Amino acid sequence: MRKGVMQLVISIFICILLSFLAFAHEEAQDSVVSVHEEKDSVLTKEFATKISIALIILSSINAFVCLALSYISKKNKKIKFLAIIIPIIFTSLFLIITTIFINLNSESSGPVHWHADYEIWACGEKVNLIDPEGFSNKVGTNLFHEHNDDRMHIEGVVEDIEEVNIKHFIETIGGEISTSGISLRTNEDLVRYENGELCNGTLQMFVYKTENKVITQEKVEDFLNYIPSPYSDVPPGDCIIIEFEEEKETTEHVCETYKGENHGS
Q1: If pLDDT is split at 50, 70 and 90, which confidence band does 111 have?
Q2: Smallest Cα–Cα separation from 170: which of 124, 196, 203?
Q3: C-beta of residue 85 within 8 angstroms of C-beta of residue 31
Q4: Cβ atoms 160, 144 nearer than 8 A
């Protein structure tokens, strides 16, 4: 009986110790407090995922060892059962608590489902981005992507609001963007537009916004850091027009979802 109790204590101790060591190692290596954090959070989604995976692996190994011991010896079945179930409960509680903690301390205060329609034009021609490949139905990340539907999808927990700005969107779909130009992946090739080249174009961005059921168009100067409005439906979600053309103050282009709507001044 005493031997079985010792096996239980050692099993739980190893599981907790290894998870703590993993936590401490990652904290030292990755500097888990992000420079963008404003809420003094010491636990990031990526970091919690690593710890969760480690705990799941350790709990699985522990369960396998205990089951193997049970097969070899039929003694102390209750002790061996507890040696399996306690680490599993500990791991489950960790997953639940960290998920709640991250959601509450995220920029979005939990999961969101935002949409914004967009079009990209260059020298008078609409640019069609690369289609999803293989079994994937999206281009981008789970958090920020498009489905070959001219729509930005923001789906999940937004830890840092910069994760969902226009610059990050272009990067997640395989392109690059700066104030001096843009490169985009299409089905045919990688295309690049630099200010002053081709149709004497300049990279600009315009946004149709809906506020109190009134639609207005505005030219966005700091377009790299623009964050789509937090709506699921479009409209009132934004219509974003990224355009490489001669310098102008308004655009004649408009998303399909905004056509036929009454536009304010």
Answers
A1: confident
A2: 203
A3: no
A4: no
d(CA 114, CA 237): 8
Q: Are residues 43 and 148 in the same domain?
A: no
Q: Are residues 125 and 87 in the same domain?
A: no
State the Cα–Cα distance between residues 92 and 60, nearest whole angstrom: 12
The 10 Å Cβ neighbour count of residue 139 is 18
The residue among 21, 4, 139, 141 whose CA lies nearest residue 80 is 4
Q: Please state, in angstroms and as integers, the Cα–Cα distance from residue 174 to each residue in 12, 115, 149, 241, following that order.
A: 45, 19, 16, 18
Residues 145 and 243 in one domain: yes
Pairing of strands 111-122, 239-245: parallel
Range of the domain at 195: 111-258
Span of 14-28, 103-117, 213-227, 242-256 with lowest mean pLDDT: 14-28
Domain annotation covers residue 264 = no
* Reduced 3-state DSSP string for 108-126: CCCEEEEEEEEEEEECCEE
